[in-house]
Amino acid sequence: MSNTANVTELPIPQDLLEILRCPACAPEGKGELTLVHNTWLVCQDCDRKYPIREGIPVMLIEEGDRWR
User: Fold this and answer.
1) Which of 12, 28, 32, 58 is the most exposed place for a label (fewest CB within 10 A)?
2) CA–CA separation, 39 vs 45, rounded Å?
3) Over the stretch 5-50, which tens digit does the pLDDT of each residue have?
4) How far, in Å, are 17, 18, 25, 49, 61 from residue 45 at the CA level?
5) 12: burial class by Cβ within 10 Å (0-12, 13-18, 19+)?
6) What 8-state DSSP symbol labels residue 47?
């Protein structure tokens, strides 16, 4: 029997999460994102929330403003 049942998969790969930045804050060299409840990417600087839909982060400033 495989142990994969005990491993929680992230909705997006960790290496992608490390390079993604909030589009509103990135021009200033900020905008690190935190994965919350495996469904949101939240900017640590401006608190915009970007949803993850079907495994794809929706990184539009308008979308982040909507859930702020």
Assistant:
1) 28
2) 19
3) 545 677 888 999 999 999 999 999 999 999 999 999 999 999 999 9
4) 16, 15, 7, 11, 14
5) middle
6) -
Nearest CA-CA partner of 45 in 67, 21, 62: 21
* 42 contacts 22 by C-beta, under 8 angstroms: no
Distance between CA atoms of 8 and 68, rounded to whole angstroms? 27
In the structure encoding, which two tokens stand for residue 12, read together?
């997006």
Written as six digits, the tokens of 15 are 């290496």
Helix (H) or strand (E) holding 61: helix 61-66
| pTM beyond 0.90, yes or no | no
- Domain positions in the chain: 21-66
